[in-house]
């Protein structure tokens, strides 16, 4: 073991030295390659016969991903597509005479339900604002998620030997109790909330009755919403859509999709291109002038409504895990100063926070909540929240103080509960690995909390009191923010997850809608008919930002390459180091769409 740790530390030292040398070299390479290359933007022309081409493929994130520094050096731009650009481009293109229509090229995308509903809403807005324009969809294989978006099109086409998947919704959880038992690890849980199921994978072999109850309700409600929109788009009944979901349609002969009304026709991709050419007045498919949402956003300001002079609305993106000091999601140490800086900006008339988070650190959630309260007190300006796929547990904590909360019907929210999870690895250390410990302490709780030995009854009681106080604070924040009694909040809390439509009935949110609705509602509150959106945190696409990102990226690559299997240990330890003991976190439900 001693040799292992010496080798481990020696490898890390070598990595840091290598990183320093490589970083200096990379800087020289970037400068030599020319700063203009990194700052350069592809020349985009939107002609009078252009159309918006939305390719649904790979991961689509709330905002476009950052440039990959290694990709930049290779001349590649492999950023993830941004939902904000997709939705903004669709809505703006509706009133752009140069854009004749939209092509949905469905190739299998990864996007949450609320994100897909946002795209569907934007497509419907496009059709209502520009009834003379067209929306056509094509795929070799339609995943259920992509098909949901495609049903908003005027016409849906498929490869003659293609497939369509419609199967309803499901959620599958993984349970690790037997694995932990085999390893000799015991998970010590202190929590408040009958429905707080985030701890269940570590202490149970399968789903509990309360967890099953809440999942069945929100899955049923969400599927009803999705199925109704599919039915409306295809001009069939909800029963028909449920019939598709019950019939293993993915295995049907392709021609039967046409007979069932799921698609409008079969054609090969080159034939679809020829159809689009005819729609745009082209005789040759090589003359087509598609424009992607990302390209469109370089020549068209999607963040401005009208002349934009009526109001300036800040949109603060709060996406990912909530942590105290480190991480790639909602980091309290970063977002709190950002909120307070926005409070000092006299040009901002209102704040909308876009939340897509299942929670995290209870301490960090409280700090963010307090900063937002400071924003309201210091500015006297309105503060709204727009909930995306998730705004639950800590995500709801940071949202509850808003003047008005918007959620999609398919949003998962609530989960007002709290827990602490402390592993006891003494069995693993002593029985499996053969490592024992001896502790010398001046006081009984000198090592508390520790993973090296189980909690004593007194320590467990103290931890439960800590969790109980956290729950009281959480529910009091929710009660004050929602204008409800604490007992009323507790009646719908208990860690239970609700879909957006149910949350509206319970008073946890104020209105069903997305970010566009929240911004429009804010503008109405401000008495403005035109507005400009300012997005935060500001994106970093300058060459020096990319260079700084390169250091972090190379560090990750080097660690994984040099440490091999040990890289998992290193990354796990780094992640654990930043985790707070007290968590306001929902179970990461993966809804299979």
Structure report:
The chain is α/β, with parallel strands linked by helices. Helix content is 46%, strand content 21%. Helix 1 (2-33) runs antiparallel to helix 22 (543-563) and helix 18 (457-482) crosses helix 19. The radius of gyration is 26 Å and the shape is globular. The model is unreliable at 28-41 (pLDDT under 50).
Question: Any descriptors?
Answer:
globular; single chain; seven-stranded parallel beta sheet; 24 strands; nine-stranded mixed beta sheet; 593 residues; alpha/beta
Question: What are the segments in which pLDDT stays under 50 over at least 5 consecutive residues?
Answer: 28-41
How many H/I helices?
A: 23
Q: How much helical structure, as a percent, in the residues?
A: 40-55%
State which percent range the strand residues make up: 15-25%
User: Averaged pLDDT, please?
Assistant: 87
Derived from helix and strand composition plus strand pairing, the structural class reads: alpha/beta
Strand count = 24
Rounded Rg: 26 Å
Note the main sheet: 9 strands, mixed
Oligomeric state of the chains in view: single chain
* Shape label: globular
First-to-last CA distance? 46 Å
Q: How would the blueprint of this fold be written?
A:
Layout: H1 2-33, H2 35-39, E1 50-61, H3 69-73, E2 81-82, H4 83-93, E3 99-110, H5 113-129, E4 134-142, H6 144-150, E5 155-164, E6 170-171, H7 177-183, E7 186-192, H8 200-203, H9 209-234, H10 238-245, H11 254-260, E8 265-266, H12 269-279, E9 290-291, H13 293-299, E10 304-305, E11 312-319, E12 322-323, E13 330-331, H14 332-343, E14 350-357, E15 359-361, H15 362-379, E16 383-392, H16 394-397, E17 404-407, E18 412-414, E19 418-424, H17 426-433, H18 457-482, H19 486-492, E20 497-499, H20 500-506, E21 511-512, H21 515-526, E22 531-536, H22 543-563, H23 566-577, E23 582-585, E24 591-592
Parallel strand pairs: 1-2, 1-3, 1-9, 3-4, 4-5, 5-8, 11-14, 11-22, 12-13, 14-16, 16-17, 16-18, 17-21
Antiparallel strand pairs: 6-24, 7-19, 10-22, 15-23, 18-20, 19-23
Helix pairs in contact: 1-22, 4-5, 4-13, 5-6, 9-10, 14-15, 18-19, 22-23
